[in-house]
Amino acid sequence: MPPTAARQPAPLALICGEDEFAVKQRARELHALWTQELGGMDHETIDGAAGNSREALEALGKLREGLQTLPFFGSGKVIWLKNCTFLGDDRTASSAAVTEALAGLADELKSFSFQSVRLLISAGKVDKRKTFFRTLDKMGYVENLSGWSLDDRDWASQAEAWGRRALKERGKTISDSALAELVARVGPHTRQLDMEVEKVSLYVGERLEIDLRDVAAVCAKNKSARAFALGDALGDRDLPRLLRCLDEELWEVKLDPNKSEIGLLYGLISKVRSMILLKEMVREGWIQGEGDFNRFKTQLSRVPADQMPQDRKFNPLAINPYVLFKALSQVKRYSQAELVRAMDLLLQCNRRLVSSGLEEALVLQQTLVQIVS
User: Fold this and answer.
1) How far apart are CA 323 and CA 222, in angstroms?
2) pLDDT truncated to tens, each residue of the chain (373 aa)?
3) Does residue 196 form part of some domain?
4) Alpha carbon distance 74, 58 (integer Å)
5) Does pTM top 0.70 for this prediction?
6) For residues 241 and 320, what is the distance between their CA atoms, to the nearest angstrom?
7) Residue 149 falls within a domain, yes or no?
């Protein structure tokens, strides 16, 4: 995710990417900055959403007119081609007429004097092979917002920085543990994070600081965060809560075709594997059993990366640091031998789920009772 809007050296900017919410927000920030700097009343916003080539050509025609019309008031003019949908590789963008029009516009921009004009284009996915993109990339400022992904090792840190900045804009501060919990509940989803930031800010009212209790009281958990609840109950060695979470997840399996009992099992295997590796990191002295999240993150950053598995699926350093921090207290509830036995029981459970005719829920319940008891 990008930092907050800052002065850009080029008067021509393209904000694009697959993270629609982040693109819209970043474009609004830059547009507000430019219009404030230039002043005046001549700024234009052109709708770039086009369902066919005719609508795309109309939007490009309006853009040309805007570029050719000099500002009457103030010292400058900002033109915003907003939500442009024909810079990618879809049918509209690939039509001969639109391709030719974009190439012609690129030639015009090369010789255009931006002395009193700034051009902002916001779009979704763009085709970087096309002449128009290469021209913008060479002449102006291009920012590609692909969004956060669980595959990114530092997505949680980026989300925390984004959330802290969003709260600061609302005049609020937040404790490190509360912010980490908020990000863990939401996951790598910009729009939902913004909604939860707004919700918790309204919840605390006039109070300036947000703490862990506030987040727990009002902030929702998405599907991936709810899946962590099953692993947390296993880590806490809380059998009643574990069986209750399992029942809830099994209901989700019935309602969601994308979920399965095998998927739940793999999540539990990942949890136990992480606990084993975390216990080893404590034994090696890389991690201390402290209750301070900031110190834990510092220690985690010093863990030798070459000592960890290269496959991200098996590497605990690829997990959200807060999720790993919560597991730090859980590993004390199991011995190393018990965790190894748990992995063996989960392997047997996998075989039974695949090869036996037993009810999946019963197999999972039996396995979890054996692990926790």
Assistant:
1) 15
2) 444 444 455 789 999 988 888 888 889 989 999 988 887 777 889 999 998 999 999 999 999 998 888 766 657 889 999 999 999 888 888 899 999 999 999 999 988 888 888 999 999 889 888 889 999 999 888 988 877 766 666 677 788 888 888 899 899 999 888 888 888 888 778 888 888 999 999 998 989 999 989 988 888 777 666 667 888 889 989 899 889 888 888 887 887 777 788 888 888 888 898 889 888 888 888 888 666 777 888 888 888 888 887 777 777 777 777 778 888 888 889 999 999 999 999 999 988 888 877 788 888 899 999 999 8
3) yes
4) 28
5) no
6) 23
7) no
Domain endpoint, select from 170, 195, 218 = 218
Record the tokens describing residue 83, joined without a space: 């939500």
Q: What is the C-alpha to C-alpha distance for residues 60 and 64, in angstroms, rounded to an integer?
A: 6
Distance separating alpha carbons of residues 254 and 285, to the nearest angstrom: 44
Do both 321 and 185 map to the same domain? Answer: no
Distance CA 29, CA 92 (A): 28
Is the same domain home to 124 and 203?
no
- Whether residues 238 and 208 share a domain: the answer is no
**39 backbone φψ class: left, alpha, beta (φ>0; ψ -120 to 50):** left
Among residues 218, 234, 250, which one ends one of the domains?
218
Range of the domain at 202: 155-218
Q: Are residues 184 and 233 in the same domain?
A: no
Residue 280 and residue 243 share a domain = yes
Question: Contact 264/364 with Cβ under 8 angstroms?
Answer: yes
Q: Residue-wise over 33-48: b if at least 16 C-beta within 10 A, else e?
A: bbbeebeeebbbebeb
Burial 259-276 (b: 16+ CB within 10 A, else e): bebeebbebbbebbbbbb
CB atoms within 10 A of CB 79: 22
DSSP 8-state assignment for residue 78: E
In a domain, 304, yes or no: yes
